[in-house]
Amino acid sequence: MAALSSPQSFLLQHPLHPSPKTPSFPPHKQPLRLKPSTVSCTAVRPPPVSLSVANDRIFNFAAGPATLPESVILKAQGELYNYRGSGMSIMEMSHRGKEFDAVIKKAESDLRRLLAIPDDDYAVLFLQGGATTQFAAVPLNLCAPGDAVDYVVTGSWGDKAFKEAQKFCKANLSWSGKSDKYTKIPSFEGLEQNPNAKYLHICANETIHGVEFKNYPTPSNKDAVLVADMSSNFCSKPVDVSKFGVIYAGAQKNVGPSGVTIAIVRKDLIGNAQPITPVMLDYKIHADSASLYNTPPCFAIYICGLVFEDLLEQGGLLEVEKNNTKKAGILYDAIDGSGGFYVCPVEKSVRSLMNVPFTLQKSDLEKKFIEEAAKEGMVQLKGHRSVGGVRASIYNAMPLAGVEKLVAFMKDFQARHP
Predict the structure, then answer these.
(1) CB contact at 8 A, 396 and 310
(2) Annotated catalytic residue: which of 198, 253, 284, 405?
């Protein structure tokens, strides 16, 4: 291997032999000579997994961190040691150097192309702390402590956002689906909105419960804005950004590894943060610094940029949505056509294209289903710990072959357990 030809690797090649130029020492400076160790090490190997995919990659149905496009991972691998002739890895270079400056600017430009984000009206921020940090950042930046805001809660993440907002403003619960176990989305006409609310907040896709907004409500206050947590369906389909004041998303579902959070913020909403707002949560600080106020998650942003390139090469988000609709349709058809063996509790009109939760009629078989699927190279199918059951997350990068393999396994499993 080329890496072993460097001078620094001599001891790796000749671990039991002295250097060709063994130094000599005077008697009073003899080096300490250690006795051979008697400690033995036993290698710990993970249990074998039976893979039935074309190579050594498995189908990863995790909700996040989630599967990434194979082409992106291979490109990153090829550029990892020496990024485009710079002599450095992308993980080593300064975030203020010309190389990374080009990376982050290209990532932002491609994201603007994908979502048709107007340059003059919206800032694109690459942040840290996950969407959970934005639960606090949104009210801190958009309203004063005494201001009213509205929340539509369609799942666990919407509920967490609502509870966090209560610390910083007067948050009103416009609607909650908790009594129906978060299986539906309300009629927008029936929402109980505060006419003075500064914003209306939704979670566009609930990762745990598999409920997705197919269209979006309008705040009753004409001066209010719509805010959306789009973590688990970000860049899975076209979105009219102009309908929103703020869109935020943890990247680790559809567009990158964990570590970076993307916020798209209307510029006229920036600059009015509450005095108590921590500097790292102030949108103006990050907008004025072009997301470089402090050291950003450079490698994660680089991967996001590669993913954006890949989505554009696929033909943009209209084509991506077509692929996602096809994959989800195949899986939901298998569930609905199982005669009740598999059940998806979510109302059909709002079923997520990204996260498909289901249960088995015989709940005692769910553990066996998950274990046998893993042996066939399909992992992370266990439902969230708060709800149980099975969940298949089929984000952009999940290939059609993965869904088809899962459906074939489901039919075979059912046939073996009448």
Answers:
(1) no
(2) 253
Identify whether the C-beta of residue 207 lies closer than 8 Å to the C-beta of residue 355: yes
Amino acid at the residue 379? V
pTM of the predicted protein model: 0.86
Q: What is the reported pLDDT for 190?
A: 79
Residue 268 appears among annotated catalytic residues = no
Q: Tokens 């249990």: give the residue.
A: 47
Query: Torsions phi, psi of 327, nearest 5?
Result: -60, -50
Task: Give the active site residue among 147, 150, 159, 229.
Answer: 229
Catalytic-labelled residue, pool 110, 147, 150, 157:
157
Please name each of the domains of the chain with its CATH number: 59-66+316-416 (3.90.1150.10), 77-313 (3.40.640.10)
* Active site (annotated) includes residue 167: no
Q: What is the dihedral of CA 105, 107, 109, 115, to 10 degrees?
A: -150
Residues of the chain with pLDDT under 70: 1-55
Block residue for tokens 């840290």: 128
Q: State residue 56's pLDDT score.
A: 84
Active site residue 229: yes
Helices (H), 220-350: 283-288, 298-313, 317-336
pLDDT (tens digit per residue) in 105-130: 999 999 999 999 999 999 999 999 99
Instruction: Give the pLDDT confidence score for residue 398 in this predicted structure.
Output: 98
Report yes or no: 224 and 230 within 8 Å, Cβ to Cβ. Answer: no
